[in-house]
Design goal:
14% strand, 7 strands, 301 residues, alpha/beta, Nucleotidyltransferase, domain 5
Length: 301
């Protein structure tokens, strides 16, 4: 997964903590894990022990076997695909974990006067971060959900390339260049259509996502692509509170005041793909639905 700037500590952290399978737990030990492509650096709060292991399935599974479900909680930064093996091993073993925006953890390190930056120090900082904020555990990874996210990200990538080709075409004047670019765009059109069909099929194969999809497209302004994007990039929908979801999407207004000065609240951060999808859906809803248009007009006034 790419870094996803999540917006508010208060929206992401809650009590009671759970293992991700709905069972309440009391964390006794926070394990901080700094992740890179090649290795994991881990700090165990209870023992004060550092350990470095390869970022490989066998080494990770051996380490996780020494952890205790219901006692240990692993805290890591969101590192894209590099945390995948660890998350799956933790989920399989029933060990609670949470991932966090590196910007948040780095700010925490600065507030704790950590000036130096090494993998070992970062692992210890993440353990301390967990103890300080006591985050809620993430759900255990779902293979179907991760496949859906992978397909959706690939589609987004192809759409970006196609948009670049269209910009190139608008500036082209040589006939050969125009012809070749048009062929490439047509090829990407075909690939994107096929990929969207695969994404839709993946959604229909899972009962919960199929139900959520039908509910989403029943809302004015929410078309197929918007629903696909939300299901892929916001798997927390239906599993967290509306306020938490708004914060994760970067749509929760943030107060902006100092002393007697109070400025207009603004939204910021959040998951870029989700915000883009919802922006286009909002435009469609404003045009097509009187209720949404009235609400938008009141907000903009």
């Amino acid at each position: 997964m790419n870094h996803q700037p999540e917006q508010l500590h208060g929206a992401v952290f809650s009590r009671p903590r759970t293992t991700g399978r709905g069972m309440a737990m009391i964390v006794q030990n926070y394990v901080g894990c700094d992740i890179s492509k090649a290795r994991l650096d881990l700090f165990d709060e209870a023992s004060g022990r550092y350990q470095r292991i390869p970022n490989q399935a066998e080494a990770i599974e051996a380490y996780v076997a020494g952890l205790c479900a219901g006692r240990d909680f692993v805290v890591m930064e969101a590192t894209g695909v590099y945390d995948r093996l660890l998350r799956h091993a933790l989920g399989k073993a029933g060990i609670a974990f949470s991932r966090h925006n590196p910007a948040h953890t780095h700010h925490y390190a600065k507030s704790a006067t950590q000036r130096a930056k090494t993998d070992r120090l970062d692992a210890r900082m993440l353990s301390s971060y967990g103890r300080r904020y006591q985050p809620a555990a993430e759900p255990a990874p779902c293979e179907k959900g991760e496949r859906l996210q992978s397909l959706a990200r690939h589609r987004d990538h192809l759409v970006e390339i196609r948009a670049g080709l269209k910009r190139h075409l608008s500036e082209a004047f040589d006939e050969d260049v125009i012809t070749e670019t048009e062929r490439l765009i047509a090829d990407f059109d075909t690939r994107i259509d096929a990929l969207e069909s695969r994404i839709a099929r993946a959604i229909r194969e899972a009962e919960d996502t199929a139900r959520d999809y039908e509910l989403m497209v029943s809302v004015p302004g929410v078309a197929t692509i918007t629903a696909l994007s939300l299901l892929a990039h916001m798997p927390e929908l239906g599993r967290r509170s509306p306020k938490s979801i708004a914060a994760l999407a970067g749509l929760a207004p943030l107060d902006n005041e100092s002393g007697k000065t109070k400025r207009r609240s603004k939204i910021s951060g959040g998951r870029p793909r989700v915000r883009r999808a919802l922006y286009m859906a909002a435009l469609g809803a404003i045009r097509a639905n009187d209720r949404f248009r009235t609400f938008y007009t009141a907000l903009a006034a």
